[in-house]
Amino acid sequence: MDNIRHRAELRRVTESLADATALILSGGLGTRLRSIVPDRPKVLAPVAGRPYLAHLLDKLVETGLRRVVLCTGYRADQVRAEFGARYRGLGLLYSEESQPLGTAGALRLALAHVDSRTLLVLNGDSYCAADLHTFWRFHHRQPSEQAASLLLTEVADTRRYGRVSVDAAGRITRFLEKSQASGRGLINAGIYLLDRALVESIPTGRAVSLERDLFPTLIGSGVYGFASSSAFIDIGTAESYAAADLFFDGLGHAA
């Protein structure tokens, strides 16, 4: 027990959120939005008068991070041309897939650009307004040396997303597929804190999914869920994309 407490304490003191490298998964094909946004990648879809990716970067600026890796694929040149090497004080680096590698494979490819012990990972098509500093502290209380923490948020109906179950200690106990889930519950909000050693264990050179291939294998050994009730949206469908302007307008008024 003393060794576990020592490891947990060490995780708390060796790094702050500002020291972490953030990675944004920006390489999706966006096929469900292609009829609406046919000429650009999904992260550049206009939302509230700006590229969607700018809203994610703004959240990282406000959190105090300094270094972001954009994991690009489809129309990667457009993302680089739009944002360049800096954004509001953030240093931007690019990790470009030559072939689709999945969400986990994209992180493994990008690891060469990461100089922190903990990775903050954001899906490039969703946004959650949760406090990332509180999420960071939650992650660094966990004793596992290859831990993954998922930011979860509560929605009225989990049917579209699938459901995540956690126990009283915050350990994830089950992932339910979309077809198995309905009603109010917790969903994966698309923001993760991952220990570097875990990302190093991802196989290289092939497509690997965080959601399907990695996280389910960690149940019982090192995957945790930080539950919140924060505002959430994704722009993965035409319906949710149509609601995005109003969503971000509401966040602005709330701030």
Short note summarizing the structure:
With 255 residues, this protein is α/β, with parallel strands linked by helices. It has helices at residues 2-13, 52-63, 76-83, 102-110, 132-139, 196-200, 210-214, 238-242, 244-254; strands at residues 21-25, 46-47, 50-51, 67-72, 86-87, 90-96, 118-123, 126-128, 148-155, 163-166, 172-176, 185-195, 223-228, 232-234. The protein is globular, with a radius of gyration of 17 Å.
Query: What's the end-to-end separation, in Å?
Result: 43 Å
- Proportion of residues in extended strands: 25-35%
Residue-averaged pLDDT, rounded?
90
SS summary, helix count: 9
Tertiary shape: globular
Based on CA atoms alone, the radius of gyration comes out at: 17 Å
- Main β sheet profile: 8 strands, mixed
Spans where pLDDT lies below 50 across 5 or more residues: 1-13
Please explain how this structure is put together.
With 255 residues, this protein is an alpha/beta fold. The protein has helices at residues 2-13, 52-63, 76-83, 102-110, 132-139, 196-200, 210-214, 238-242, 244-254, and strands at 21-25, 46-47, 50-51, 67-72, 86-87, 90-96, 118-123, 126-128, 148-155, 163-166, 172-176, 185-195, 223-228, 232-234. The protein has an eight-stranded mixed beta sheet with strand order 5-6-4-1-7-12-9-13, with helices on both faces. It has a two-stranded antiparallel sheet with strand order 2-3. It is globular, with a radius of gyration of 17 Å. It starts with a helix and ends with a helix. Mean pLDDT is 90; it is low at 1-13.
